[in-house]
Design a protein that fits this description.
Layout: E1 10-14, H1 18-29, E2 32-38, E3 45-46, H2 48-54, E4 61-69, E5 75-82, E6 99-102, H3 106-115, E7 119-120, E8 125-126, E9 137-142, E10 148-153
Helix pairs in contact: 1-3
Length: about 180
C-alpha cells in the first residue's frame, strides 16, 4: 500500500439549520442526501467523550449529522450543534476559510446559488497572474448561513504550467449528460 493522499473525501461544514442548508446545497449545487449519520430526531449527543473527540467547548451537543453527495467531487458533511456556532468564520480568520468548487459553467451555477439564497460578494472575476487565461474565472458568494463559497473555472492553459510539469488537481470533465440537474 502506498502512503499518499488520493483526493479530498469530504468537507465538514457546521450549519445553523440542517434542513435549510440541505435545501440550499441541493438547489444551488445539485447535492443529494446520502445518509444521516446522526438523524435529527436521535440527538442530541454530547458529553466529555464527544467534546474531546471533536474538540468542541464543554456543553456542546451534536443535534444532527448528514452526508451529502455532489454530482462530481467530494462529499459535504453537515453538522448541527446546540448551542449553534457563535458566528460564521470570516476569510481573515485562522483555519479553513472557504470551500472552492470547480465548475464548467460559472455563470449558471452562480445564478443558481443566488436563486437558492446565496449572497454574491462580487461579479465573476478573471483569475490573476499564474492562473490567468481567457476563460479562467472565479466568484465568491456567501451562503445563507454565512460561510464563503467560491466557484472557479479554468478551462484555458495557465501561465504557471510553462514553468513546471506539476499541475493543480482538477476533476475530470463530466460527460454531457452528467452534472448538476437543470433547475425547475
Amino acid at each position: 500500500m502506498t502512503a499518499r493522499v488520493r483526493g479530498i473525501d469530504h468537507i465538514g461544514l457546521t450549519v445553523p439549520d440542517l434542513e435549510a442548508a440541505t435545501r440550499f446545497l441541493a438547489d444551488a449545487l445539485g447535492a443529494e442526501v446520502l445518509y444521516d449519520t446522526l438523524p435529527a430526531g436521535r440527538g442530541p449527543v454530547g458529553g466529555p467523550e464527544t467534546e474531546q473527540r471533536l474538540g468542541v467547548p464543554p456543553g456542546t451537543r451534536q443535534l444532527a449529522i448528514r452526508m451529502l453527495a455532489l454530482p462530481d467531487g467530494p462529499g459535504i458533511e453537515l453538522f448541527a450543534y446546540d448551542p449553534p456556532g457563535r458566528s460564521p468564520a470570516l476569510p481573515s480568520d485562522l483555519g479553513w476559510q472557504h470551500l472552492a468548487l470547480y465548475v464548467d459553467d460559472l455563470d449558471t451555477l452562480r445564478d443558481r446559488a443566488i436563486e437558492a439564497g446565496a449572497h454574491p460578494l462580487s461579479p465573476p472575476h478573471p483569475l490573476p497572474g499564474p492562473e490567468a487565461g481567457p476563460a479562467n474565472r472565479f466568484a465568491y458568494l456567501r451562503t445563507p448561513w454565512g460561510s464563503t463559497l467560491e466557484l472557479v473555472t479554468y478551462p484555458d492553459p495557465q501561465p504557471y504550467e510553462e514553468k513546471t510539469d506539476r499541475r493543480r488537481w482538477r476533476p475530470a470533465a463530466s460527460p454531457p449528460s452528467c452534472g448538476v440537474p437543470s433547475a425547475g
